[in-house]
Specification:
Elements lengths: L4 H16 L13 H13 L5 H11 L10 H10 L1 H13 L8 E12 L2 H6 L7 E5 L4 E12 L5 E7 L5 H11 L1 H5 L4 E4 L7 H8 L3 E4 L15 H17 L11 H24 L14
Parallel strand pairs: 1-5, 5-6
Antiparallel strand pairs: 1-3, 2-3, 3-4
Helix pairs in contact: 1-2, 2-11, 4-11, 5-11
């Protein structure tokens, strides 16, 4: 099997279509199937198209005949927003289909997802009340938007994620994620979570200890360092590189969402694209698990 965009999309379509086979649907069957819709969304993210209208104009020239029917931009946007649960489900199918899924070490971090810059946008946007002002310590800047809380394996495979108000404490979000999907912890005995200093909390320590999970993060200066703490910096940089891939190659910061559903599905679309690339790279035995180079042109 070769590693290129067409091969990835074909394998992805077959995988989704097989999983959806036999699923009943109310009403008239759509001209663009759910498997085709999700495959289109992944291709759009990998090729770096932030404009849905430009993407739909470009597609017939890039892959003529690949999709028997293409909707207009409004129809594509409506279908995509309605497909958010399906996109999350497909991401889980692909992630669980890799040998990385059962890794018992996780890395957790959060990164800003800016949703607007002008004051009128912050006041009139449909995101107002959900998106808020927050401060990004790593870039020493304020932003208006949300925070993406991402949990991934050391190889960069996203395990689960959440979008939250940037004013909500990272520790509270991590506990909420664990409570929302307790089976993720239950199926990984002796799970180790690596985080930064923002996750220092006795409440969080007790919460995770009750679930037989260890949390390691840098110690404060007035505390004795953990064994092997000098290695944490390089490990934590792995999730920074995942965030950099989402922002630098998959254009997370140019998501263009203007509603809660719009932002949610565009973030999920990019995470799915990353997982799909990792899934295909592992299946084809590529040396670099998280490389998108073969798929971005």
């Amino acid at each position: 099997m070769t590693t290129d965009l067409n091969t990835l999309l074909t394998a992805l379509y077959v995988k989704i279509d097989d999983r959806l086979a036999g699923r009943t649907r109310i009403g008239r069957p759509p001209k663009l199937t759910d498997a085709e819709l999700v495959t289109l969304a992944v291709a759009q993210a990998l090729l770096g198209f932030t404009s849905e209208a430009r993407w739909l104009r470009f597609l017939p020239a890039r892959m003529p005949g690949a999709f028997p029917y293409l909707p207009g931009q409004p129809g594509y946007n409506r279908r995509l927003r309605a497909a958010l649960p399906l996109i999350k489900q497909v991401a889980r199918w692909l992630a669980a289909d890799t040998d990385l899924w059962t890794d018992t070490t996780w890395i957790v971090d959060s990164t800003p997802v800016e949703c607007g810059r002008s004051r009128p946008t912050a006041k009139r946007s449909e995101l107002a009340g959900w998106a808020k002002y927050g401060y990004c310590r790593s870039h020493s800047r304020w932003f208006w938007g949300l925070r993406l809380h991402l949990i991934c394996t050391p190889a960069g495979l996203p395990v689960t994620w959440a979008l939250a108000d940037p004013k909500i404490d990272e520790r509270q979000v991590l506990m909420a994620i664990c409570d929302h999907e307790p089976q993720l912890l239950a199926t990984r005995p002796a799970l180790l979570i690596i985080a930064d200093k923002g996750y220092v909390s006795r409440e969080l320590d007790r919460f995770l200890a009750d679930r037989h999970v260890r949390l390691i993060r840098p110690s404060y200066r007035n505390h004795a360092p953990h064994p092997g703490e000098h290695l944490l910096k390089s490990i934590r940089q792995l999730i920074e590189s995942v965030n950099d891939t989402l922002k630098g190659q998959l254009n997370l910061e140019q998501h263009g969402g203007r509603t809660i559903e719009g932002v949610g599905v565009r973030v999920a679309q990019r995470i799915l694209a990353l997982i799909a690339a990792i899934w295909h790279n592992r299946a084809t035995g590529q040396p670099i698990t998280r490389s998108l180079t073969a798929y971005d042109h």
